[in-house]
Amino acid sequence: MKYIDEYRDGRIAGSLAAAIRSRVTRPWVLMEICGGQTHTIMRYGLEDVLPPEIELVHGPGCPVCVAALETVDKAIAIASRPEVIFVSYGDMLRVPGTNSDLFRVKAAGGDVRVVYSPMDTLKIARANPTRKVVFFGIGFETTAPANAMAVWQAKREGLENFSMLVSHVLVPPAMRLILSSPENRVQGLIAPGHVCAVMGWREYEELARDFHMPVVIGGFEPLDLLEAIRMLVCQLEDGRAEVENQYVRSVTYAGNQAAQRVMGQVFEVTDRAWRGIGAIPRSGYRLREEFAAYDAGKLFGTEGIAAAEPADCIGAQVLQGLRKPAECSAFSTRCTPESPLGAPMVSTEGVCAAYYRYRRYAAIEGAR
Ligand code: SF4
Q1: What's residue 365's pLDDT?
Q2: Which of 66, 328, 329, 332 maximizes ligand 1 atoms within 8 Å of its Cβ, making it the mutation to test the pocket?
Q3: What fold is seen in the domain 5-56+171-245?
Q4: Residues whose beta carbon lies within 6 Å of some atom of ligand 1
Q5: pTM of the predicted model as reported, rounded to 2 decimal places
Q6: Tell me: domain 65-170+255-299, CATH 3.40.50.11740, correct?
Q7: Residue 280 and residue 272 in contact, taking contact as beta carbons nearer than 8 Å
Q8: DSSP bridge partners of 135
């Protein structure tokens, strides 16, 4: 299939791996930020073709994984109300809150529905004028434009029974926190191509400059990632710390300015709690005051809900590249995709789910 098979060509993959081997002279720790990239690495066994000097660690770029426990608890509290139709992307339904999850709310009779676009929520709101329809607006910069558009459209129509529980997170502030940590081991970053397709890469230039950190904006296919790794290794071996764009077929320097405009109209930057990591300054979006009538957190009075993370999930350390899933005592025993203890085991983009699905036995063996 055009634009798919050509990025999965084994012969070209072999050439890229050889090019990496020919340049590498010492160990390097590289982080792919996005969970979609992690899944490609695991699914196609990319680590197996890399030289032993290259260690890949996995970043926080899984929106389901970093949605704070208290955010899930707020969603559960709202979805449990009889007057509410609670609408979400499917991944969020199985994410464990403190005592329940959205699937259990649905099983107990709650009206919880799955959509593929926030605009579908507007259709549900129009068709159910006597119900309160709430969309679970989570995700990175990638999903923020569509969510902003849904709120903007609701206001334009005067749709009064629609609101959004907003918990958007932003990549660069989280990376700044991870790179600032005294425990940080990361020496090069594969930036998330889809986030940069929306936002451009100006903010990544600041990361490269402030941390003397090479950054390559990477795509999601096996050849994208091998090429991004090759570009990072070349920078590291040359002593350079620049932003380079591997994902040229989707990403421009300025990003999608129409998307940025609608996000800027509807959202403003705020401090945000990340699951396991805690509050990160200016790392999320909330609705602007002009759109307060669509803020489900305010409308349903859930702003005071707080939660403590389960002690035996080391997901926060995994998402900061400090530990690997198999180092968690619950991995593949008490925590599986069927019965997840933490969010990184739930999501299709979660790093623990990727290890479980593609490298379960090798990971356990390696951790011994
Ligand atoms: S295996 Fe489960 S409990 Fe362990 S870090 Fe991953 S999600 Fe958390």
Answers
A1: 66
A2: 328
A3: Rossmann fold (3.40.50)
A4: 313-315, 318, 325, 328, 330-331, 335, 341-342, 344-345, 352
A5: 0.92
A6: yes
A7: yes
A8: 87, 164
